[in-house]
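Morning F.,

Quick status update on the modeling queue. The single chain you submitted on Monday has been processed. Sequence for confirmation:
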Amino acid sequence: MMTQEDNRFLTQTDMGTPMGTYLRSFWIPCMVLGEVPGADEAPLRLRLLGEDLIVFRDSNGRVGVMEEHCPHRRASLYFGRNEEGGIRCVYHGWKFDVDGNCLEMPNEPASSDYCKKVKAVAYPARERGGLLWVWMGKGAEVPQFPDFEWLDLPADHLYASRWEQECNSIQAMEGELDAAHVSFLHRRVDRLDEKKNSLSGSYFQVDRAPRWHVKDTDYGFVAASQRDVEDGKSYWRMNQFLLPFYTMITSDPGNARMTRMWVPKDDEHCWVIAVNFRVDMALQEPELQAWKNGDNTHRKVVPGTTQPVETRANDYLIDREVQKRVSFTGIAGVRAQDAMVTESAGPIVDRSREHLGTSDIAIVRMRRRLMAEARALASSGTLPAAASAGALYRVRAHQTVLDRDKQFDQEEEVLAAMRS
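Structure tokens below.
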């Protein structure tokens, strides 16, 4: 149980808040590159950490991410003209480059140097790993990129998507760190006799109360769940939490690997960005088509938008007959099922009213780690350790079966499989 004061500390990310300052000390993934406008095309709106921004690409192909409102009279630059190397406000013609420098003030006298004294709020942006990244921090010390193994893969080796979730980013991410719910929320009641170690498989039904082993690391922690299965064995899933909002969930053998990102849009909404990838080969058309249709890794959205098809407004298209005969929830898709339980708790869940159990150990550890990191930054003013050491992110999620008396972190073969 948390106090309401700690809950506010954890969930408030506007500029000037401790958690907001902490998140701004990292490079932040904000959209899929396919969404970024082309050169001299119309800008795109983006809300991120409570700030209203625009994204555009100038005549030279450089991406600009800046405050939506013109520094002159605060008109929206979303309606501006993207032309000849900058975005021009249609109100009085002030023009800015991707760095926020004012290039022209046509309504000021030709002799005026006022243009040199005004600058729009603009943030450094980079394109890597199929995503657009932005650094919203202050000062000269720019963080390192988190060196995920998929950042520099060929384009046909990875697939990325983005969608919106109608709740605070922390509670959305909490569902990812709660492996116990898989035995219930994602259960297929028509497939209970299947013998495979997948979301619908027998391992999750044989032992529905896994034992938790959370191992702290410099980048976050490993959330390992141990389930007792047949012949004196234990099934282990080693999922990863990486600061400040990344998760890696174990993929079924042979499937593409995955990293998911839970980025605050504002305090009551978040962006979920998912990347699937294969290091040694291009992705195959059947798996690409499945992800585009919203399989277990990605969310089905209204074409051309980031709006999910199943939402709170339409009760996630629940089918009560399917709930009786096929699935535990009657809601199609793992991602929609997760969204239902996290969004139905409200835009910011009141954690002072929770009653946590042993299956919530990883969630508690994540909350405490984030708050401790944010407080440490507020007191020291230096970059968090993970933001200054990108190589820490070269890790993987993993699953295995071991003799019941063995621990995952004492087996070199397991530890090696978790390094990329």
